[in-house]
Amino acid sequence: MDTPEQPQIYLITPPTIELSTFPGKLASVLDGAEIACIRLALAGNDEDTIARAADACREVAHARDVAIVISNHVLLAQRLGLDGVHLDDGARSVRAARKELGTDAIVGSFCGASSHDGMTAGEHGADYVAFGPVGTATLGDGTRADKDLFQWWSQMIEVPVVAEGSLTPELIRDLAPCTDFFGIGDEIWGSDDPLGALNTLLAAMS
Q1: Strand locations in 26-111 (E)
Q2: What whole-number distance in Å separates Cα of residue 101 and Cα of residue 115?
Q3: How far apart are CA 83 and CA 195, in angstroms?
Q4: Residue 2 — pLDDT band, cuts 50, 70, 90?
Q5: What is the DSSP-derived secondary structure letter of residue 26?
Q6: Do the Cβ atoms of 50 and 15 come closer than 8 Å?
Q7: pTM (2 d.p.)
């Protein structure tokens, strides 16, 4: 029997980026670990701030042949030369984003713990669906995406799936057989050694 391939890592940036230090941190993580994609998950609506952060991160990512998408800002994704967009509103904007960005762009969708939203997003052209949080988070309404959802999805649906939100080594070990990607962000950026923190999480997969 084939052993499933190990999930890939989908790196999520902090909501605010210090331009003097973060690109260097990002580069060291990309140089030290195999990263499939980066999501710019930037807070706020100041276009200039977002554009400067996106430019800095895009340079680091593209120099290493890593794709980079931005949360929700479909028009900025095009203008800033990014590889696509990650939508936080389930299936609602997928069709419009796909139409705007074309077939080559990455369009992903965060669907909380709703398999229905996930399936609809896939039908509308999403390249991947993210479910979460998988860990215990005090934010939001306390809804969690549990292992049953990922097991069902991986058996029934072909659209790649991302597990994200409050990940721990235990959750990574538990979910590794039934997810395609782990979305990792807050779990490592608060550390003085983000790459070391990432490697600690990754060790749980083996």
Answers
A1: 35-40, 67-71, 84-87, 106-110
A2: 25
A3: 24
A4: very low
A5: H
A6: no
A7: 0.95
Integer Cα distance of 48 and 59 in angstroms: 17
**Amino acid in position 126:** A
- Report the alpha-carbon distance of residue 153 to residue 160 in Å, rounded: 9
Average pLDDT, the chain: 95
Q: Cβ distance 130 to 161 under 8 Å?
A: yes
Residue pair 102/131 in contact (Cβ under 8 Å)? The answer is: no
CA gap 123, 81 in Å, rounded: 26
CA dist., res. 116 & res. 191, Å (int): 36
| DSSP per-residue codes, 113-176 | T-HHHHHHHHHTT-SEEEE---S--SSTT-----HHHHHHHHHH--S-EEEESS--HHHHHHHG
The DSSP bridge partners found for residue 184 are 11
* HSE value, Cβ hemisphere, 13 Å, CA-based, for 113: 14
